[in-house]
Design a protein that fits this description.
This is ATP-dependent DNA helicase Q1. The protein is 54% helix and 0% strand. The protein is mainly alpha-helical and 76 residues long. The radius of gyration is 13 Å and the shape is globular.
């Protein structure tokens, strides 16, 4: 558990550097406070070249249970 920086940019910079320095090539889960933040984190990681998938309760059941989502989580 890490303290969250004050700005969204600083937060994403910290997450990105942590992944690159300590967890490169590994799978992991980033817990967010809400759906919007989860989608923004996933999008930001993708834009920085880190494969990411957003998953939250408001997604449709077919998407949450789809083979592509399950495959992503099993092979990431």
């Amino acid at each position: 558990v890490l303290e969250k920086p004050a700005t969204p940019k600083d937060t994403m910079d910290k997450i990105f550097h942590l992944i690159e320095q300590r967890f490169k090539g590994q799978s992991g889960i980033i817990y967010c406070f809400n759906r919007k933040e989860a989608e923004e984190v996933s999008s930001s990681l993708e834009s920085r070249g880190i494969k990411s998938c957003c998953y939250h309760a408001l997604m449709s059941a077919p998407y949450r249970n789809s083979a592509s989502t399950v495959t992503f989580w099993r092979h990431s």
